[in-house]
Amino acid sequence: MKKRHALSTRLWHWINALCLVVLFMSGLNISNAHPRLYWGDRGFLPSEAWLSLPDFPGWITIPSYYSLAAARDWHVVFSLLFAFGLLAFMVIALINGHIRRDLLLRAAEWRPQSIWRDVKAHLRLDFEHGSGKYNVLQKLTYALVIFILLPAMIFTGMAMSPGMEAAWPWLTEMFGGRQSARSIHFLSAFALAAFLILHVVLVLLAGPITQLRGMLFGGRLDTSGGADAQA
Amino acid sequence: MRRRNFLVVLGASVVAGCDAVGDSSWFGKVVDRAQNWHRGLHRALGGGRIAMAPEFSRSAISPFFRGNGTQSIDTGTYRAAMEDGFANWTVTVSGLVEHPLELSMENLRGLPQRTQITRHDCVEGWSAIGEWTGPQLSTILDAAGVRPEARFAVFRCADNLNGGDYYESCDLDDALHPQTILAHQLNGEPLPERNGAPVRLRLERQLGYKHAKYLTGIELVESLDGIGEGKGGYWEDRAGYQWYAGI
C-alpha cells in the first residue's frame, strides 16, 4: 500500500507547525517592545508609523511575561530549525516529485471556471473533489504558503539582522529597507496565522481523525482515481 | 463549554511549559549554540570578504537622533568634565597590549578620521540614521600592539544605569573592522550628551546596545569571565540579551 503523505512531508509538517507557533508567539512578545511599523530604512516616531499594533497579552506570547531578551532567544533558536527545515523539505519534495506532482497547478486547473467550480465545492463543504491529491484551491494555498509566505518570513528576518545585512546588503535593499522588511515580516506572519486557523478549521470539517492519522502515520493513497477527503 | 475549558487549560500548559523550558539551563546552552550558528552563517555568507554595513546618503539622516538607555550623567565628575569641554577626558587602552595608551580627545581628533552615515538598529525594533565621525579603532589597537592571546575588546563607560556600570565587548573581528570607530561627532557636531558625549563606540554590524557610550577605556582580554557578571556586557548580564547582537 502506498502512503498518502511521504515520511519527509509528515516530519516537516509537524516540525514546521511547531516552529510557526513558537516563532509567532515569541514574535508577538518582540512586537510589544516597539509596537509600531514603518516603511523605508528608518523609523521611530508615532508620526512616521503606518501602523500601531496593540499590546499582545501574555496568554498568546512566549514567554508569557514581557521579556524581549527571552523572546529573542526563542526566535534565534527556532528560526534556524524553521529555515533549514523548509530548505530540506523543498529539496526532498523537488527530488521525490511532490512539488511537480501534487503542488503545481495543471494547465486545465488554471482556467477561471475550474477555480470557480472549486470555490463553490468548498462552500458546499464538499472536499472530495479534484483529480489529483489536492484540489485547485488547496494547491494554490499550499503553493502560496510554501513558496511565498514561508520564504518571505525567512528572508525578511535575515534582512533585519545587522550582521546578515552586512553580508547580503542587496537583500535588505530588495525589501525597500530594514523597516520595510520588518513590516513585511509582520504582514506575512499574520497571513500565516490566518492560514493556520483556516487550515485547522478545514481539517475539522473534512474529518479530523482521518486527516490527523494521515499526517501522523501516512494514510492511504487512493489510487482508484478519485481523491479522498483531504484538507 | 467543556471543550473550551480543555483548550484554555491546554493553551495555558503550553505557555507554562515554554516558560519552564525558557528558564532551564539546557535551553540557555541551545540558545548559545544557535547564536554561534547565526554568527557563523553571517560570516560565511559574507563570502570571505570584509562585510560592510550599508552606508547612506545625507538625505537619509534622521531629523532627530534620539538617545536611549542613559541620556544624561549626573555625577559631579562628568558634569565638571562637560563644563570644560572634555579637555581632560581620556580613553585608556589597557590589558593585553604591548603599549598601554591614554588618549585625550585632542589625540583622538588628531588621528586619521572616518566619517560614515549608518543606520542604528535598536534591539526593540526602531532604526535611526546618523553621520558619525571618529578614528578607526583598528588604528588605535595597531598603535597599542594587540598581544596574540587577546580575543576580546572590552569597552568601559562613564555611565551607571540602574546601579550597574555600563560596559560592552566584542571579538577582534568586529574590533578591527573598518567601520568600527570611536565617534566624537554626530552629524558634524560634537556628540550630544544623550548620544554618549564626548566619545562612543560605533559597532555597525551589531544592534544598538553594543555601541558603548561615554567611553573611558578599552581593555584587551583573553576571556570575558570575571568581567561584570561574565556575559560580556551590561544588558547581557542584566537582562540576558545575546552577546552577539548581529541577529
Summarize the amount of helix of chain A as a percent range: 55-70%
Q: How many independent structural domains of chain B?
A: 2
Number-wise, the strands of chain B total: 11
Strand-pairing-aware structural class of chain A: mainly alpha
CATH fold-level topology of the largest domain in chain B: Sulfite Oxidase, Chain A, domain 2
Mean pLDDT of chain A equals: 92
The share of residues in helices of chain B is 25-40%
Cα Rg of chain B: 20 Å
Number of DSSP helices of chain A? 9
Q: What's the CATH class label of the largest domain in chain B?
A: Alpha Beta
CATH topology assignment of chain A: Fumarate Reductase Cytochrome B subunit
Number of strands of chain A: 2
Topology at a glance:
The complex is a heterodimer of chains A (231) and B (247).
Chain A: H1 7-33, E1 36-37, E2 51-52, H2 68-95, H3 98-103, H4 112-123, H5 136-160, H6 162-167, H7 169-174, H8 178-206, H9 208-217
Antiparallel strand pairs in A: 1-2
Chain B: H1 2-23, H2 25-45, H3 76-83, E1 90-95, E2 101-104, H4 105-110, E3 113-121, E4 127-135, H5 137-144, E5 152-161, E6 164-171, H6 172-175, E7 181-183, E8 185-186, E9 189-190, E10 200-202, E11 215-221, H7 234-239
Parallel strand pairs in B: 1-11
Antiparallel strand pairs in B: 1-2, 3-4, 4-8, 5-6, 5-11, 7-10, 8-9
